[in-house]
Every structure is written in C-alpha cells, then in structure tokens.
Design goal:
Number of helices: 5
Helix content: 55-70%
Order of helices and strands: HHHHH
Number of domains: 1
C-alpha cells in the first residue's frame, strides 16, 4: 500500500495547536514569569499569568495523549531523506527528544504546581481565594526540633514571587522546603525549557533546509490537502 503524502488532518490540527500552545507557554515562562523571579525584592507574578501558564500546560499534556492515539491509528508519509544518513538519524532523534521533553516539561510543571499548592489555589481556591494573598490558617506540616523552633512559613518549595504563601496543606507527605521547590522541580522545569528551545531551533532549521534547499515540499506534509 502506498504511503500517504500528508499526515492525517486531525494530526495536522493537533500538531499546530500544540506548537501554538507550547510557544505561548514558553513566552509566558521566559518573558513574564522568569524576569519576576530574577528580580526578587518581593515582586510577584500576577495570578492570571501563572494560572494561564498552568492551564496551557495541562491542555498541552491532554493534546499530547490524544495525538499519540491519533498517530497510532493513522498512516504517515514515508520518512523524508536529507541526503545524509547521519542527518536522518539526528532528525529522528530530535523528533523523539521533542516529544519526550514536551511531555516532561508539562508533567514536571504539573507536579511542581501540585506539591506547592499553586494549582489548587489557582483552580480550586484551596488555601486562599487569590493566588498572591495569604490563606487563613498556619502551616503545621513539619515537626519541631524543640521548644521555640521556628516553623516554615511557606508550603514546600513555595516562592513568594509565585504567590507562595503559608498553607494548611504542605503538599505531598514527607516533603521538606527545598530551593526551587520539592526535588528542585522549578530549576528542572526551566532546564527542560532551554533544551526544548534548542531542539525547536534545530527542528525549524531542518524544515527550512528541506523546504528551500532540497525543495522536497516537506512542510506540506504537515498541512491540509489531498493525501
């Protein structure tokens, strides 16, 4: 059976929708959230920005799962050749790495948001009605070493710039405050974002190489039209 010339229209829609959402989330992360974190001085990211950032991440994760099932159940064009076996293998590696890192960055971000109660506060009002306002109650999740030992005033990994406030629920059992969040998830989230940017740059350059140097009409494979 002859391979189709284009990907399935549903797969095309999912591909470009994920591209749009990931680009929007990277913009919010690098240009709205990260500068505030670096500024310090008690500055806080607006609740709306963080909520949108998390909502987009959850949407991307859901679309990735849908895309996987559509991809498994639909045909695909024959692999595009670059004229070099090394480049062809590198292109496949970049594709798999992109899938992995997009999935990883959303999962890491979701776990970080859950463990620091940011997701609960943003979407369910748990621990406070506003993202940047202290909820009622005090944090009592950690044992004291003795009389007069001060208690942590923030949920595990909570950063004041991201609205980290005292919370009655410390997150997952057994957590302790750590720089950047439980298990350093916030720095890991940022590291994956930088790796994604590098992979995306390589991916775009490869697509432009095929389109304008090899002239094999590669981009049309991921667009609408007759198969």
């Amino acid at each position: 059976m002859e391979s189709p010339k284009r990907y399935h229209p549903v797969l095309v829609t999912l591909h470009w929708l994920i591209v749009l959402l990931v680009s929007a989330d990277l913009y919010l992360g690098f240009f709205q959230i990260a500068p505030t974190l670096r500024a310090g001085g008690g500055a806080r990211v607006p609740q709306s920005i963080v909520t949108i950032h998390m909502a987009i991440g959850i949407a991307v994760l859901a679309l990735l799962v849908i895309r996987l099932f559509v991809r498994l159940g639909s045909g695909k064009p024959a692999p595009a050749a670059s004229g070099s076996q090394v480049l062809d293998r590198l292109a496949r590696l970049v594709h798999y790495a992109l899938y992995f890192f997009v999935f990883a960055i959303t999962v890491v971000g979701l776990v970080f948001a859950l463990q620091t109660n940011r997701l609960q506060r943003a979407f369910f009002g748990a621990g406070g009605s506003e993202f940047g306002r202290p909820p009622t109650g005090s944090f009592t999740g950690f044992p004291t070493a003795g009389p007069g030992t001060p208690q942590p005033s923030f949920a595990p990994g909570a950063n004041p710039a991201l609205g980290g406030q005292p919370a009655a629920n410390p997150g997952f059992p057994g957590n302790r405050p750590r720089p950047g969040g439980p298990f350093f998830l916030l720095p890991l989230h940022l590291l994956i974002a930088w790796l994604m940017l590098m992979l995306l740059a390589f991916h775009v350059l490869a697509a432009l190489y095929h389109e304008f140097i090899r002239r094999d009409n590669l981009i049309a494979r991921m667009w609408y039209g007759r198969s």
